[in-house]
Amino acid sequence: MGDILFLAHRVPYPPDRGDKIRGYNVLKFLSARKRVHLIAFADDTRDMKSKSGLSKFTGNRSIIWRSKPRAVAALEAFFSRKPVSLTAFENRPLREAVDNILGRHSIDTIYVFSSQMAQYLPARPRQRVIMDFCDMDSAKFASYAKSATGPMAWFMKREAKLLFAHERAVAQRADASLFVSEAEADLFRSKTGAERVHVVENGIDTEFFDPTAQFKRIDTTGALIVFTGQMDYRPNIEAVTWFVETILPHIQVRHPHARFAIVGRNPPDSVKALTKQPGVIVTGEVADVRGWIAAASVVVAPLKLARGVQNKVLEAMAMARPVVASTAAAQGIDHGGTIRVGGTVGEIAEEVIAVLDDPAGSNAMGREARAQVQRRYSWDACLAPLDAILGIRVKAPPRKSAA
Question: In this structure, is residue 356 part of a structural domain?
Answer without folding.
Answer: yes
